[in-house]
Amino acid sequence: MFLFLVVALAVVVAAVTLAVVGGGEGGGPLPEAAPERLQDPLPPDRPISRADIDSLRFPLSARGYRMADVDDALSRLGAELAERDARIADLESALAGARTSSGHVSMDKPAPEDQQ
């Protein structure tokens, strides 16, 4: 029984070795598997929306998610958030400036007797 197990193990090891080295019908070693990539990356031509974030799914790798894909997505989100924060600050300062300058200008409709 022990001899049978040793022979079976040798046959399995030889078969795996031949498959990897290329002793089969393919004529060469096993082809390199392309790494899984993000199926639907974030759109490069428009700002990111909430739906883009909700539909974002990272492919799994041996130890979790592919770090490069996650890093790319986080740096893109960080850049867009910084851009939006700067735009909000500009708009708030413009609004504050408009409020101070409009304090001296009356926006009321003139009375009919003032028009004559």
Short description:
The chain has helices spanning 2-21, 50-55, 67-102, and strands at residues 60-61, 64-65. By secondary structure, it is mainly alpha-helical.
From the structure above, extract its key features.
mainly alpha; 3% strand
Describe it for me?
The chain is mostly helical and 116 residues long. The chain contains 3 helices and 2 strands; from the N terminus they run H-H-E-E-H. The chain has a two-stranded antiparallel sheet with strand order 1-2. It has helices at 2-21, 50-55, 67-102; strands at 60-61, 64-65. Helix content is 53%, strand content 3%. The protein is rod-shaped.
Strands of the widest sheet, in order across it, are 1-2
Unreliable residue runs = none
Structural class: mainly alpha
Distance between the termini: 120 Å
Order of helices and strands, N to C?
Answer: HHEEH
Bulk shape: rod-shaped
User: What assembly state would you assign to the polypeptide chains in this entry?
Assistant: single chain
Number of helices: 3
Q: Tell me the total number of β-strands.
A: 2
Query: Largest beta sheet, briefly?
Result: 2 strands, antiparallel
Strand content: under 5%
Mean pLDDT equals: 80
Radius of gyration: 33 Å
Percent in helix: 40-55%
